[in-house]
Amino acid sequence: MNVACYVRVSTAEQNLERQLQSTSDYAIDELGTELANVVTYRDKSTGTNTERSGYRELMDAVDAGRVDAVVVHEISRLARSLQDLERTVSRLTDAGVEIHFVRDGLSFGDGKEQPMHRLQMQMLGAFAEWQARVKQMNTREGIAARKQEDGYHHGPAPLGFGKDNGQLIETTNYHEVVAVLDMVQKGELSKRKAAQRLGCSRSTIGRALERSDLYGI
């Protein structure tokens, strides 16, 4: 059996190893394939759409008949849009390819699907999409709050910002700062490692987290 593992992260530190381990272990232990028959496709991007190079390479392999089964750590790694999720799962199963979601305990196209599985997938997909929309909303609200910010007119600009005539403006690494702070807040990255990555002190990371409204997190 030729198995394709698909992993996706927003940043390099975001649990990539866990996804790699869980998908490869599943392919070998549960599907009984050999490691030589496992190919991993990777993406580093947001999941609100499927315009991703690794995803496209995976689907090209599926269309070419080189894949018997696809293994993904969890539904939100494949797509955060319910419409894209259902479209992808249908495209795979219509091509005779199994799809397995390890953490969610769901599989399709393997002849073992239960009626409740499709509903569970839709519910998990809808929740993942809701999470993505909430994060987008928080980011927009953070930007709006930043435009009204008066606290830094006469002091140093916070992490990820510069100043222009007293108004805060984003620096070129603003989005990296947001991604790093988000990981720290979720416990996925320590303040020390965050400080090393952004070239600042741990106290600066702490102060930035206290002003999470500026970063939409």
How would you describe what is shown here?
The protein is of the alpha/beta class. It folds into two domains: 3-128, Resolvase, N-terminal catalytic domain (Rossmann fold); 149-214, no CATH class. It is built from eight helices and seven strands. Helix 6 packs antiparallel against helix 7 (191-198) and helix 7 crosses helix 8 (202-210). The chain starts with a strand and ends in a 7-residue tail after the last helix.
Core attributes:
217 residues, alpha/beta, Rossmann fold, two-stranded antiparallel ribbon, 48% helix, 15% strand
In a nutshell, what does this entry contain?
By secondary structure, the chain is α/β, with parallel strands linked by helices. It contains eight helices and seven strands, in the order βαβαβααββαββααα. The strands form two sheets. Strands 2-1-3-4-5 form a five-stranded mixed sheet, sandwiched between helices.
